[in-house]
Write a structure and sequence with these properties.
Layout (H helix, E strand, L loop, with lengths): L2 E4 L9 H5 L18 E3 L5 H5 L3 H18 L6 E6 L2 E2 L5 E2 L2 H14 L2 E5 L23 E4 L11 E4 L1 H7 L12 H16 L2 H23 L4 H8 L13 H11 L9 H13 L10
Parallel strand pairs: 1-2, 1-3, 3-6, 6-7
Antiparallel strand pairs: 4-5, 7-8
Helix pairs in contact: 3-4, 7-8
């Protein structure tokens, strides 16, 4: 069967096929093995946690891991598609460096591999662009959409060039609940609202405002070097996609300055912040990568 490649930390969903390329949490796979064969995981460039804030090194080593995998385990010519979240969601709200995504696009072009961008969590303006892959200046072959597409109503979409759609042939793909008229009406309303209220531009502006606020926090903490900024910056999402910085990361930065590295905050520690933010109309939840 066609081989697929996925990056660790990814979440795609919970059907058999999508679970096979999900690796953000073992609970999604526990009790469901065996899953689809022909799926291979490669390195995701987690700039902050794994590469000390060095984007260039993160991109280069992650691409090398992909090249090594196709040289020793699965030939690149046997790979049908590479699936990636340009900004990982449950994997930790981690943006892939633009140079990595550009290298991935070039790799796929070289070997005739389809590049699939999972925009389920980051799409529809949440990163200050309509789609998070736009930050890298690339165009995927396939884009997967859901969640914000219909503002909570059950709707998803697989977007490709017409040429790829026509390869399936008529009737080759379908779903019992696809094209629900109520959900589709909601999807149209979402697109109209995004355009009418300039929500993508607003996300970019609020993201810039958030970054400026984080720089102020850096000043208060005495974090002035570029590495420290990247550490704090990577604890937030690209623009508003990450919303609020991860408490355990900021706590870890403070702990390092006090030689008391702390990697976890308990619910008792996070609950007061969650409760206080709710009073201002901002609802957040904790995530376990």
């Amino acid at each position: 069967m066609p081989r697929r490649r996925r990056t660790p930390g990814a979440i795609t969903c919970w059907t058999s096929g999508s679970t096979s390329i999900t690796s953000s949490n073992i609970n999604y796979r526990l009790g469901y093995e065996p899953l689809l064969p022909g799926v291979y995981l490669t390195t995701y460039p987690n700039v902050y946690r794994d590469f000390g804030g060095d984007e260039h090194r993160a991109a280069q080593l992650s691409l090398k891991h992909l090249q090594d995998l196709t040289a020793t385990t699965i030939p690149a010519t046997s790979v049908a598609a590479i699936v990636i979240e340009p900004v990982q969601g449950e994997g930790g709200y981690i943006p892939a460096p633009a140079s990595f995504l550009q290298g991935l696009r070039a790799f796929c072009d070289q070997y005739g591999i389809l590049l699939v961008a999972d925009e389920v969590q980051a799409g529809f303006g949440r990163t200050g662009r309509m789609w998070s892959f736009e930050h890298a200046g690339i165009v995927p072959d396939v884009v997967c959409l859901a969640k914000a597409i219909a503002n909570g109503l059950p709707l998803s979409a697989v977007v490709t060039r017409r040429e790829l759609q026509e390869r399936w042939g008529k009737g080759a793909h379908g779903t019992t609940y696809g094209g629900n008229p109520v959900a589709c009406a909601a999807g149209i309303a979402v697109l109209e609202t995004i355009e009418r209220e300039h929500l993508v531009a607003n996300a970019a502006e609020r993201g810039a405002e958030l970054m400026e606020g984080l720089r102020s926090i850096m000043g208060l903490l005495g974090l002035t070097d570029q590495h420290s900024f990247k550490s704090l910056n990577e604890a937030c999402a690209t623009a508003l996609a990450r919303g609020a910085w991860r408490l355990r990361d900021v706590k870890g930065l403070l702990g390092q300055r006090q030689h008391e590295v702390q990697t976890h905050l308990s619910f008792a520690q996070t609950h007061p912040l969650i409760r206080n933010l709710a009073e201002y109309g901002l609802f957040i939840e904790t995530k376990i990568p």
